[in-house]
Amino acid sequence: MSEGHSTYTPKTGIGRWFDARMPLPRLVYDSFVAYPVPRNLNYAWTFGGILALMLAAQMLTGIVLAMHYAADSTLAFDSVEKIMRDVNSGWLLRYMHSNGASFFFVAVYIHIFRGLYYGSYKAPRELLWILGCIIYLLMMATGFMGYVLPWGQMSFWGATVITGFFSAIPLVGDWIQQLLLGGYAVDNPTLNRFFSLHYLLPFMIAGVVVLHIWALHVVGQSNPTGIEVKSKTDTVAFTPYATIKDAFGMLVFLFIFAYFVFYLPNFLGHPDNYVVADPLKTPAHIVPEWYFLPFYAILRAITFNIGPINSKLGGVLAMFGSIAMLFLVPWLDTSKVRSAVYRPWYKLFFWLFVIDAVLLGWLGSQPAEGSYVFMAQMATLFYFAFFLVVLPVLGLVETPRRLPNSITEAVLEKNKGGGGGHPARATAAPETKG
Amino acid sequence: MSATDIQDPNRRDFLYVATGMAAVVGAGAVAWPFIDQMRPDASTLALASVEVDVSSLTPGMSLVVKWRGKPVVVRNRTEQEMKDGEAVNLAQLKDPLARNANLPADAPATDANRTMPGKEAWIVMVQVCTHLGCIPLGQEGEFGGWFCPCHGSVYDTAGRVRGGPAPENMTVPVFQFISDTKIRIG
């Protein structure tokens, strides 16, 4: 969208000199100032900017923490305690980093659900969506390896369980697992390589983020109506409209983040991780970080053999499959209408899916026994049915509501009924429900 | 050779193929040490065998020793536990194989095959859940054997999997009684 019709005119001599040699200011101007965005974007669209901010914050706090941390199984736990007690402001930096990871995932989940609700993954945004899924996978790998570094009980046993996934692969599984661990069990070599990769992956995320934004700026943002931009009246300039809206969204998000950092710093963590890792003693109840709980519930739901696939491999396949579903969404959804605003049945199933995902998260935090197992199996069934049955079938049988002719028409129609108000807020109702 | 009679395959084709081959073999040769360094190193592979004094274990008592970074349980089973283990119908087992490194790989998972001949009271096994590597708790679960708190796998008094997501019986490592009160593992 920014290609081909740049309106950038350097005002100073230095600006012109630069523009003729390396037009970086032009790229920034075209991408973040003059870049046209749909005029009806609601606050759900501010999470892309919030995610970029969180990535930068995580890298900053992480680089500083690495100056005080010792990646050695005999030193790691104590070095983290040293950061908490001895290093000046160390407690703050560590709490910002550990809660920052959680809030990074809060933002990414809202971002993903926003994409699902408004059908942001549909043509021509399939590649944009898939790049986002890759970022999400990299985030999960980074988050997992970061959680191992404090070398507490949950670090150790979480690493044991998750690297155990790979031993489910037929024939080469044990070899791959030993390759990941650098031994027969989680130990010092594991900690060393996880630290190295935990430092590397955020930079890879940053690289894919660049591709994600590039793809976004080729096809342009989707919007709450799901109708493509048709004329100049459908858009506003990125600066100041989207810039100020994103900035305000970030501010509110950082307020909540700061509340957790200062008043509930361990609310999202687990007390067992303040016990040093013991390879001979599994905690009574292993739980991963909250953001992995739905997938953990799916993993544990497969307690039965499926033909030649044993329950262990079945659980691992179901878990990876549940993430793989996201990659396939652009082709599983057969509806021509993007936004759930105009799809009454999809809207219902979307919220059922949200409830199902939260339910799976809760079940993942409960012990794997009794009725919890059955509930997890039913919730897993619905999870897969949403992607493999609801999305393809609904597009064929659902009658969507009448679509407005343009974004401008939708905004004006809404304002007529709602008694005025700012155009950008006109269709902002859906995010208030979530 | 004049410029007009270039024949296929010509010199350029040869250079293409030769360069391509060198690049592929070279890339592989360079990649291997990067993968190889991730495998268990010499200090990890130098697995000393462990000798355990079991003279203090009366029936109903267990001890755990660390071997290859993993816990190995040595349990002197009670009469009741042995009876429970022997009473199991093999057709009901999720994993019909003994998983005993001292026996052929296809040995059936009878109670006797999970132990040593003449030492049927003694269970020596790697106390690591075959699901995802947690340490099951001893003398718990509905079969009075082991119960894994992570994902709910249940094992009987012979360490055979009876329920939950675990696919296999817990492994019996290579071991021998070097005297009536001493076991060597590994």
TrEMBL record, chain B:
- Gene Ontology CC annotations of this record: plasma membrane
Cross-referenced NCBIfam families? Rieske_proteo (TIGR01416), TAT_signal_seq (TIGR01409)
Please give the start and end residues of each transmembrane region: 14-35
Q: Which gene encodes it?
A: petA
Indicate yes or no for the key word Iron.
yes
According to its record, how does it sit in the membrane?
A: Single-pass membrane protein
Q: What does this protein do?
A: Component of the ubiquinol-cytochrome c reductase complex (complex III or cytochrome b-c1 complex), which is a respiratory chain that generates an electrochemical potential coupled to ATP synthesis.
Reactions this protein catalyses:
a quinol + 2 Fe(III)-[cytochrome c](out) = a quinone + 2 Fe(II)-[cytochrome c](out) + 2 H(+)(out)
Q: Provide the protein's localization.
A: Cell membrane
Fetch the InterPro entries from UniProt: Rieske_2Fe-2S, Rieske_2Fe-2S_sf, Rieske_Fe-S_prot, Rieske_Fe-S_prot_C, TAT_signal, TAT_signal_bac_arc, Ubiq_cytC_Rdtase_Fe-S_su_TAT, Ubiquinol_cyt_c_Rdtase_Fe-S-su
Q: Which family does it belong to?
A: Belongs to the Rieske iron-sulfur protein family.
Keyword hit for Nucleotide-binding: no
Any one GO molecular function term: 2 iron, 2 sulfur cluster binding
The name under which this protein is listed is Ubiquinol-cytochrome c reductase iron-sulfur subunit
- Binding note for cofactor: Binds 1 [2Fe-2S] cluster per subunit.
Other remarks on this protein: The Rieske protein is a high potential 2Fe-2S protein.
EC class (word): translocase
Q: Which residues form the Rieske domain?
A: 85-184
Q: Which SUPFAM superfamilies match?
A: ISP domain (SSF50022)
Q: How does it assemble?
A: The main subunits of complex b-c1 are: cytochrome b, cytochrome c1 and the Rieske protein.
